[in-house]
């Protein structure tokens, strides 16, 4: 190859490569599917009736719990979603007028879910409707999603010997969301704690409520920005950290943490072979690496 | 074995029973050249085997039970601690303890340090077995272990760090099998295979460095998925992978020091002159490498703290625990190594190697289990069956390790036909 041809080829390749990269660079920040649905949870309205838990249990065909859903003794402990219950309500005694605050916990359906990004078999999907769903057919059961989830949501059916799978809220995707219907818990709520709608609209509704009645709400919508934004967002009358929300999570999605390492991988693959073959040539001075070199005893002082 | 050797039993160390004429059969090789009766009686005489027998008698049924009754039968089935001892100990500590393969491979094959050759094969074997058993621990932990090949065949999640770990461990296991197979080919007398491996050794070694850099680091990077759960002192968004990678290096070197020490005390009949004569010198060389890595590790740990400005956490309960880990697990062995190397105290180096291993194991357990979920009140406590299974798999590891060291030319040089004819086996 002539020198000129070589240079020409280099220039063309370089230009092509930079084109490809620049297009990618614009798509780095994912704002979420534009028409994704969400739920606005207004915690000031919740009375802790647990009917959402019951509706979820029925809709997802989970086994009956040990205590019935009208038993309020469950509030004595803080619960988390499990393989038997995809949503739970917890009670918090707060400093505000001795009135307890109830908080519903379920999958928040993140815009950039940690479970999805940590999964090595791609078992999770963020659908365009906004649900984070799970494919039990490919899951190998490493449970990295449970480690990754910043909200500690996924449960696992440990008791199954031959087909243990992750169990979590899927936004009633298969039976409702897919057809544009709200999830079972939203439909049953007697207090209108839960508002189902386009997430972008719900964020506006949330800010509107904060503006309309000054002092009723903390001026913050939890989930609007947390962890890159979640599909379920929360309004509260008391500071979020008093009612079990982790307010230290920050606004970056989990994947931002990992990108630094992921970017480093192709560089190792590209550089190490030349680097170490080069070092080999330098240190051996072209000599064969067979046993031709006599054994050096006590070469080290 | 000592007794048998004294009785003039011939231990197999070459291809030919009678030089130049008939070869050893596979059965004879497996029995080390002893008669079946001799073999069984020497095995029964070893008290360690009785201990192993007790462990297996209890552990193997429980291990089998795990696959029939599910994970909830053997673990606490915690949703908040999805990873228990099988991964916290089995995967996260077995892998760094196995970094010896790529390090000695690099030193000998890339940098031409042929003085390290007597111990190279031991380091390669240590690497292979450590990885293999890390995978065994993983199989015990996975909910559906029969789906292990899924990330390679059916369903890809290439953005996940675990995807990388899966691929790299799989490829690296193959690389290590190829590296160790050199001694296996010698042993079964397949010289063509040996030559073929010899020809691609450089490529294998470089592949080993790449894969080790990436997945030792990747095990650390796994924790960057859980920034709120790993205690800040054990977490560093930018340097987590480096902390894991660098600390794996002294761990691997110290494993070779410890294993070679045990071997030198217990397998006198197996190693050859070349091994034992050089061992002290090699131990010092390895310790020197380990000390350098420890110093580097200590420095980047400090930088990690400074980079994220986490000094305030040092004055907390976990801070004291962190200072203990760094003091007893990193600084103390660093000082002991320095003094021992300076004064040529091999015995001290061996003890220090053990402390270093303890330090790295503690670091992994701290990151994955002990300080994990530090904001929660509930701490990780293993189920007793989980402990039994962990001990059992580790014991299988030791048994397989010993089985191979007894047979393959790892600690001794395989005598070719010509050599054998010239230097008849005496002693």
Give me a quick take on this structure.
The complex is a heterodimer of chains A (301) and B (427). With 301 residues, chain A is an alpha+beta fold.
Q: Residue ranges of chain B: pLDDT <50 for 5 or more in a row?
A: 419-427
Please state roughly what percent of the residues of chain B sit in beta strands, choosing from under 5%, 5-15%, 15-25%, 25-35%, 35-45% or over 45%: under 5%
Mean pLDDT of chain A, nearest integer?
85
Query: How many individual helices of chain A?
Result: 7
Mean of pLDDT of chain B: 89
The biggest beta sheet of chain B reads: none
Q: What is the overall shape of chain B?
A: globular
Give the CATH superfamily of chain B: Formate dehydrogenase/DMSO reductase domain
Q: Report how far apart the termini of chain A are.
A: 52 Å
Number of domains of chain A: 1
Which structural class do the helices and strands of chain A define? alpha+beta
CATH architecture field of chain B: Up-down Bundle
Write down how many β-strands of chain A occur, each being a DSSP E stretch of 2 or more residues: 9
Task: Describe this structure as you would to a colleague.
The complex is a heterodimer of chains A (301) and B (427). By secondary structure, chain A is of the alpha+beta class. Chain A has one domain (37-255): Alpha-Beta Plaits (2-Layer Sandwich). Chain A contains 7 helices and 9 strands, in the order H-E-H-E-E-H-E-E-H-E-E-H-E-H-E-H. Chain A has helices at 3-26, 51-59, 114-118, 144-148, 184-188, 199-212, 254-284; strands at residues 37-42, 88-92, 101-105, 124-126, 132-134, 155-156, 166-167, 194-198, 232-235. In chain A, the strands form 4 sheets. Chain A has a 3-stranded mixed sheet with strand order 8-1-9. Chain A has a two-stranded antiparallel sheet with strand order 2-3. Chain A has a two-stranded antiparallel ribbon with strand order 4-5. In chain A, a hairpin with a 5-residue loop joins strand 4 (124-126) and strand 5. The longest helix of chain A is centred in the last third of the chain and has 31 residues, at 254-284. Chain A is globular, with a radius of gyration of 27 Å. Mean pLDDT of chain A is 85; it is low at 13-27 and 291-301. With 427 residues, chain B is mainly alpha-helical. Chain B has a single domain, classed as Formate dehydrogenase/DMSO reductase domain (Formate dehydrogenase/DMSO reductase fold, Up-down Bundle). Chain B is 70% helix and 0% strand. Chain B is built from 18 helices and no strands. Chain B has helices spanning 2-6, 26-30, 36-45, 47-69, 71-74, 85-97, 100-110, 117-141, 150-153, 161-188, 191-199, 201-221, 240-266, 273-307, 317-342, 346-370, 384-407, 417-422. In chain B, helix 6 (85-97) packs antiparallel against helix 16 (346-370) and helix 7 crosses helix 13 (240-266). The longest helix of chain B has 35 residues, at 273-307. The two termini of chain B are 14 Å apart. Mean pLDDT of chain B is 89; it is low at 419-427. Chains A and B meet through helix 3, helix 4, strand 6 and helix 7 of A and helix 4, helix 5, helix 7, helix 10 and helix 12 of B.
């Amino acid at each position: 190859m002539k020198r000129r041809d070589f240079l020409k080829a280099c220039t063309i390749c370089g230009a092509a490569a930079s084109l490809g990269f620049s297009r990618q660079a614009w798509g780095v920040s994912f704002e979420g599917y534009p028409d994704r649905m969400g739920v606005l949870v207004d915690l000031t309205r919740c009375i802790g009736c647990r009917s959402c838990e019951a509706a979820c249990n029925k809709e997802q065909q989970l086994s009956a719990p040990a205590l019935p859903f009208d038993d309020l003794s469950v509030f004595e402990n803080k619960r988390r979603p499990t393989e038997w219950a995809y949503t739970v309500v917890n009670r918090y005694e707060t400093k505000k007028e001795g009135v307890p605050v109830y908080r519903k916990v379920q999958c928040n359906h993140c815009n950039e879910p940690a479970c999805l990004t940590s999964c090595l078999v791609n078992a999770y999907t963020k659908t365009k409707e906004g649900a984070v769903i799970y494919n039990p057919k490919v899951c190998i059961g490493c449970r990295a999603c449970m480690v990754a989830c910043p909200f500690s949501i996924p449960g696992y059916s440990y008791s199954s010997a031959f087909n243990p799978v992750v169990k979590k809220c899927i936004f009633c995707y298969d039976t409702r969301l897919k057809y544009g219907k709200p999830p079972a818990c939203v439909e049953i709520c007697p207090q209108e704690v839960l508002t189902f709608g386009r997430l972008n609209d719900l964020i506006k509704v949330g800010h509107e409520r904060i503006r309309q009645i000054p002092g009723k709400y903390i001026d913050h919508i939890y989930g609007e920005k947390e962890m890159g934004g979640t599909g379920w967002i929360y309004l509260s009358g008391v500071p979020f950290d008093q009612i079990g929300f982790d307010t230290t999570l920050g606004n970056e999605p989990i994947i931002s943490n990992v990108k630094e390492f992921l970017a480093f991988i192709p560089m190792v693959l590209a550089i190490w072979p030349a680097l170490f073959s080069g070092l080999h040539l330098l240190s051996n001075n072209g000599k064969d690496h067979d046993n031709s070199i006599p054994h050096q005893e006590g070469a080290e002082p | 074995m000592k007794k048998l050797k004294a009785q003039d039993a011939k231990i197999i160390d070459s291809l030919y029973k009678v030089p130049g004429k008939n070869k050893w059969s596979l059965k004879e090789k497996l029995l080390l050249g002893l008669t079946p009766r001799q073999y069984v009686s020497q095995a029964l005489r070893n008290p360690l085997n009785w201990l192993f027998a007790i462990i297996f008698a209890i552990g193997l049924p429980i291990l089998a039970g795990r696959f029939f009754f599910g994970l909830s039968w053997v673990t606490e089935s915690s949703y908040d601690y999805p990873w228990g001892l099988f991964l916290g100990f089995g995967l996260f500590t077995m892998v760094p303890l196995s970094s010896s393969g790529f390090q000695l491979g690099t030193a000998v094959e890339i940098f031409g340090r042929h003085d390290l050759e007597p111990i190279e094969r031991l380091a390669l074997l240590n690497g292979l077995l450590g990885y293999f058993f890390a995978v065994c621990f993983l199989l015990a932990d996975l909910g559906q272990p029969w789906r292990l090949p899924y990330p390679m065949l059916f369903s890809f999640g290439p953005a996940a760090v675990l995807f990388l770990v899966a691929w790299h461990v799989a490829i690296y296991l193959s690389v290590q099998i190829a590296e160790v197979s050199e001694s296996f080919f010698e042993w079964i007398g397949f010289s063509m295979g040996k030559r073929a491996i010899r020809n691609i050794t450089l490529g294998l070694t470089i592949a080993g460095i790449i894969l080790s850099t990436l997945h030792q680091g990747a095990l650390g990077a796994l924790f960057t998925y859980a920034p709120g759960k790993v205690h800040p002192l054990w977490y560093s968004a930018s340097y987590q992978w480096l902390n894991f990678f660098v600390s794996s290096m002294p761990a691997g070197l110290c494993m070779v020091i410890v294993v070679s020490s045990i071997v030198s005390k217990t397998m006198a009949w197996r190693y050859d002159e070349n091994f034992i004569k050089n061992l002290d010198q090699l131990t010092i060389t390895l310790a020197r490498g380990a000390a350098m890595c420890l110093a580097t590790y200590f420095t980047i740990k400090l930088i990690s703290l400074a980079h994220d400005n986490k000094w305030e956490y040092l004055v907390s309960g976990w801070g004291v625990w962190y200072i203990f880990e760094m003091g007893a697990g990193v600084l103390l062995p660093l000082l002991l190594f320095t003094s021992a190397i300076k004064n040529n105290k091999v015995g001290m180096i061996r003890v220090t190697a053990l402390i270093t291993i303890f330090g790295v194991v503690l670091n992994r357990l701290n990151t994955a289990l002990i300080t994990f979920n530090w904001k929660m009140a509930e701490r990780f406590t293993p189920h007793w069956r989980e402990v039994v299974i962990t001990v059992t798999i580790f014991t299988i590891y030791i048994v397989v390790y010993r089985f191979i060291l007894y047979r393959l030319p790892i600690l001794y040089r395989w005598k070719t036909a010509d050599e054998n004819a010239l230097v008849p086996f005496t002693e």
